[in-house]
Amino acid sequence: MASKRATVTCPACELEETFTRLSAARSRIEDHRAETGHEATWELHRLSPGVEQAGDDAGVCGKPGCANADSPLRRPLARRSADDETET
Q1: In this predicted structure, what is the pLDDT of residue 63?
Q2: How far apart are CA 29 and CA 8, in angstroms?
């Protein structure tokens, strides 16, 4: 039996579905938004340890200052090359 990877819920209605594939969960969120205008969310149940560590190091929680500046996954802004810059 496949393990659950994500649960999609909607605070505006009774939607609650569990998915074994993240792509299916993401599609359900988009479909629910298109059908109802509601903003459903998902809870991710399982990620590989490396993905979790990368997220923690990057500070993906959205709180200022929670990134790990000593992480080998981060590069200081001044060290980025000109190729990393995107023209708008």
Answers
A1: 63
A2: 7
